[in-house]
Write a structure and sequence with these properties.
By secondary structure, the protein is α+β, with helices and mostly antiparallel strands. It contains twelve helices and seven strands. The chain is 69% helix and 11% strand. α1 packs antiparallel against α6, α2 packs antiparallel against α3 and α4 packs antiparallel against α5. The longest helix has 64 residues.
């Protein structure tokens, strides 16, 4: 099932549930109005002694039993949380109740009561017509329940009129048949309007959710694109472009605060051998492990970047002195040199570190990068696995006397 069909089916289910819930929620008010009308008929027939009391009491008892049963059913429904799978059962139960209720009103139009009340037929017919008209908005959300109620309530009266071929009854047959047809059409129209209203509501909600999801996905995609443009796809640290931006900002901060900024330029010794021996996947895994180790020893404000291949860079802001920079470089050298398990083989790589310091070695990022790169190659040319400052470390940190 495709997405549009799934969405349409979901809206259909929600609409069915909403129609049943709406009917149950407004049912009690219609029951109350129906009980008041039935009680008026009871008093009316009793007062005018228009029918045998046994008939009247039996009819009213039947009506009360049906109404009470329907009220209990409504209470159970409203206190429970019916699922969409159970909604058909609740709809059928309400329809059965509507038929029994309609039948209780239909009795007033059968020989059981109405012929005995011939002199006073008009008030009973008016009340019956009013009850049927009131059932349309109350029961219309469940279309079949509304139609069955109307049939059960009005059909017996029309049949009784047809059984006695008098001129007035022929007129009443035509009148109530027209009224019956009008109520059926009104029920169908009302049901369609209510159903359409719910469908539009759920379609709008689905549209809002879809737009919200689309917006979230777009924002996520834009964020991912932005991240991909500024971060290394393998290690997820800053790439060269983002590093250069960070570097410029760090230089501005160091110049304003008159603090020491250090650039550590790293190149892994023996990385090519790992690639050649174990393959590029092993090389990638090695880079991930090295980057993870470096993250563990750096401060949150330190910036780690992959400039390309096995070349990494670290920005150390607001360092206290040259010795603290050397301590970091030594710690970097140590963690990189720790053995690494790759494809069930233990390998070991080292790192050559060139160090440039702002403002001693330069005041521009391009200058500091060249200085650090040159210092890194100096380490490589002298066996690697070490770090080197561009200037004489001893001169910057003379031993204490």
């Amino acid at each position: 099932m495709n997405l549009s069909a799934t969405l349409a089916n979901d809206i259909k289910q929600k609409t069915e549930v909403a129609l049943v819930v709406a009917t149950y929620k407004q049912a009690k008010l219609s029951f109350l109005a129906s009980w008041i009308c039935a009680t008026v008929i009871l008093i009316y027939l009793y007062y005018f002694n228009s029918a045998p009391l046994s008939y009247i009491y039996l009819w009213y008892a039947f009506f009360l039993i049906v109404t009470l049963s329907r009220t209990i059913l409504v209470n159970i429904f409203l206190q429970s949380e019916p699922s969409s799978h159970d909604i058909e059962l609740w709809k059928n139960l309400f329809t059965v109740g509507a038929f029994l209720s309609g039948a209780s009103w239909g009795i007033t139009g059968t020989p059981l009561l109405l012929p005995y009340a011939a002199p006073q037929q008009t008030p009973i017919m008016v009340i019956l017509a009013g009850v049927c008209a009131g059932s349309v908005p109350a029961f219309a959300p469940i279309r079949n329940a509304a139609l069955i109620f109307l049939i059960a309530a009005l059909a017996p009266l029309i049949v009784c009129f047809a059984a006695t071929q008098t001129s007035i009854n022929l007129f009443l047959i035509f009148t109530f048949s027209a009224f019956f047809l009008f109520l059926i059409l009104l029920t169908l129209k009302t049901h369609k309007m209510i159903k359409t209203s719910f469908q539009l509501q759920f379609e709008n909600e689905s549209l809002v959710i879809s737009l919200s999801d689309a917006k979230s996905k777009l924002e996520l995609a834009n964020s991912q694109l932005k991240n991909d443009a500024t971060h290394d796809p393998l290690t997820h640290v800053a790439n060269r472009s983002l590093f250069e931006s960070y570097f410029e900002d760090a230089i501005e901060t160091a110049a304003k605060d008159h603090t020491i900024l250090a650039l550590l330029y790293l190149d892994l010794d023996g990385f090519k051998n790992v690639n050649d021996t174990y393959g590029h996947e092993a090389g990638d895994q090695l880079l991930l492990i090295v980057v993870a180790r470096l993250k563990n020893i750096l401060r949150d404000k330190d910036i780690l970047s992959r400039l390309g291949g096995d070349e990494l860079a670290i920005l150390l802001e607001k360092m206290e002195d040259i010795q603290s920079i050397a301590d970091v470089a030594e710690r970097v050298r140590e963690v990189v040199a720790e053995p690494i398990m790759l494809q069930e083989n233990v390998v070991q790589v080292h790192v050559s570190i060139g160090i440039a310091i702002y403002p001693t070695d330069g005041k521009e990022s391009s200058t500091l990068l060249r200085v650090a790169d040159r210092a890194m190659y100096y380490v490589k040319d002298h066996g690697g696995n070490n770090y080197h400052f561009n200037v004489d470390f001893e001169k910057q940190n003379p031993p204490s006397a």
